[in-house]
Design a protein that fits this description.
It is a single chain. This protein has 470 residues and is of the alpha+beta class. The chain contains 14 helices and 19 strands. It folds into 3 domains: 13-93, 2-Layer Sandwich (Uridine Diphospho-n-acetylenolpyruvylglucosamine Reductase, domain 2), CATH 3.30.43.10; 100-210, 2-Layer Sandwich (Uridine Diphospho-n-acetylenolpyruvylglucosamine Reductase, domain 3), CATH 3.30.465.10; 213-422, 3-Layer(aba) Sandwich (Vanillyl-alcohol Oxidase, Chain A, domain 3). It has helices at 8-15, 30-34, 54-66, 117-125, 141-147, 154-157, 185-191, 226-239, 281-294, 307-313, 336-347, 396-410, 428-435, 439-449; strands at 21-23, 47-50, 71-74, 90-93, 100-103, 108-112, 129-130, 164-170, 176-180, 200-207, 209-210, 213-222, 248-255, 268-277, 299-300, 303-306, 323-331, 355-360, 382-390. Strands 12, 13, 14, 15, 16, 17, 18 and 19 form an 8-stranded antiparallel sheet that branches. It is globular. Bound molecules: flavin-adenine dinucleotide (FAD). Flavin-adenine dinucleotide binds next to strand 3, helix 5 and strand 10.
């Protein structure tokens, strides 16, 4: 038994207050329950509480605090840094808070704090509606939204936080509050980008938008064409700056030797764009016609498809358990020099699984002011991620070093900071530079709602007036 194991009396005290159950290191389901998406993360919590409702979340928060335990909060478990789990911690596992209630008349969805993106898409898609989320359906709504949330609808409808109307939270003192533009406004401001620093969100209320068929899919070129195609991509995005239906993220990534990928791509790293045009078919075809004409793609799977199909497409080849190492930047301008660096690191890619993605975060997201929510970089055009990925733990150093040196060379060409949801363990300076002028206000809100920094398994914002060392 670990010296930090919970005593039987403590476990009894906790379970007596729960509708859900507790998974302990001695339980058969523990190994599976402690795993997260990133196979590099190998942490052993003292207990995993499978919360069934807000009451269970309150009991778990109170228990961790009163017993001096670290508290981790887990939704989809997708976070690259593994922030849904911590050694010797009590984990509030929200995976059973999965209800989604769509109100088609008012175009909103009430979403449980443990939902995955695909579950919400499924429920809202039945009404031809969608909330703007990320591109992989197994990602948790909780972590993604609280950090910002970018995806195919970002240029058209903004970040996930720009479509958030209200949250219900359990705070560090165990109390339950609602935060919105009308109540607890400071908290509502902070949770829109400030991550899980302020409490456990048990439900989200999102605005929805009509989305059904989109003109979407990958258009890929040879890796040797990266510098040329990235330069053209920059021009195409600039030409469509005010056309928010026009969305495409640039990528460099490979295709493993697996049958479900087209034969001609297996084992190769390529460059390309994953498009999602939300206008009419006619508008979409016209917008993409000069792109197709410029250089014949090696693969062109761009076609009308349901938004739900698109949302489930990108994650199909990314099973849980791969090793991931993330680095991130906010990009204002793609200079010729930066493009050359991208092309260089594409050639040096350590594995076919590794990716570079440039996600547009302008358009509607750029029309929100930098201090209106915690997400500060509203002038950014792209959120960039350089992720070394491989199934083999033996390649851990290779993928880590590639991401780090890629980032080190490109960071001087960025705006500073980086998307907190795509960081690893960069530390306080990087977190501060991500929030810039919003950091002090976030630290004040943290001091009000979590003065002892109970919620610290996250990209941590330190309380402005800590009552004890944290
Ligand atoms: C393959 C992959 C694809 C991705 N694609 C995108 C994308 O398209 N767009 C994008 O914006 N991001 C994307 N991300 C990043 C993603 O947003 C983060 O990994 C995010 O943290 C995942 O959220 P989660 O709930 O699954 O994570 P978890 O590991 O469960 O949690 C992450 C953090 O959020 C906190 N948290 C989670 N839920 C709650 C809650 N209900 N209340 C309070 N705190 C909570 C946790 O405490 C933890 O600190 C991607 C990541 C991966 C690995």
């Amino acid at each position: 038994m670990s010296k930090d194991a919970l005593h039987e009396s403590q476990i009894k005290e906790l379970t007596a207050k729960l509708r859900g159950c507790v998974v302990l290191p001695s339980d058969p389901g523990y190994e599976e329950a402690r795993r997260v998406h990133n196979g590099m993360i190998d942490r052993k919590p003292a207990a995993i509480v499978r919360c069934m409702d807000a009451g269970d979340v309150m009991a778990t928060v109170n228990f961790a605090r009163d017993n001096g335990r670290r508290l981790a909060v887990r939704c989809g478990g997708h976070n690259g840094a593994g922030l849904g789990v911590a050694d010797d911690a009590v984990v509030a596992d929200l995976a059973r808070l999965r209800g989604v209630r769509v109100d088609p008349e008012h175009r909103t969805a009430r979403v449980g704090g443990g939902c995955l993106l695909g579950e919400v898409d499924h429920a809202t898609g039945a009404f031809g509606l969608a909330a703007p989320f990320g591109i992989i359906s197994t990602t948790g709504v909780g972590g993604l939204t609280l950090g910002g949330g970018s995806g195919y609808l970002t240029r058209k409808h903004g970040l996930s936080i720009d479509n958030l109307r209200e949250v219900d939270l359990v705070l560090a003192d165990g109390s339950f509050v609602t935060a919105s533009e009308r109540q607890n406004q400071d908290l509502f401001w902070a949770v829109r980008g400030g991550g899980g620093n302020f409490g456990v969100v048990t439900s989200f209320l999102f605005d929805l938008h009509p989305v059904s068929t989109v003109y979407a899919g990958p258009m890929l070129w040879r890796l040797e064409d990266t510098a040329e195609m990235l330069t053209k991509y920059r021009d195409w995005m600039a030409e469509h700056e005010d056309d928010h239906d026009f969305y495409g993220f640039f990528l460099m990534q490979g295709f493993p030797l697996e049958d479900h990928f087209p034969e001609e791509l297996q084992g190769k790293t390529v460059c390309g764009v994953l498009w999602c045009h939300t206008g009419t078919l006619d508008q979409a075809e016209k917008a993409l016609e000069p792109i197709r004409a410029y250089k014949k793609p090696a693969l062109d799977w761009v076609a009308p498809m349901s938004y739900l199909t698109l949302q489930s497409m990108a994650g199909a080849g990314l099973p849980r358990g791969l090793q991931w190492y993330f680095k991130a930047d906010f990009v204002g301008e793609l200079t010729d020099d930066a493009i050359e660096i991208h092309a260089k690191y594409g050639k040096k890619s350590p594995s076919v699984w590794s990716v570079m993605h440039l996600y547009p975060v302008d358009g509607a997201a750029g029309q929100v002011g930098p201090s209106e929510t915690a997400w500060s970089y509203r002038e950014a055009k792209w959120s960039a991620v350089y992720a070394g990925v491989d199934p083999n733990p033996g390649y851990r150093d290779a993928i880590t070093n590639w991401s780090r040196s890629y980032w080190q060379e490109l960071h001087p060409y960025s705006l500073g900071g980086g998307y907190i949801n795509m960081m690893m363990d960069e530390g306080e300076d990087c977190i501060r530079s991500t929030y810039r002028d919003n950091y002090e206000r976030l630290a004040d809100v943290k001091a009000t709602y979590d003065p002892d920094n109970l919620f610290n398994v996250n990209q941590n914002i330190k309380p402005a007036r800590a009552t004890r060392p944290v």
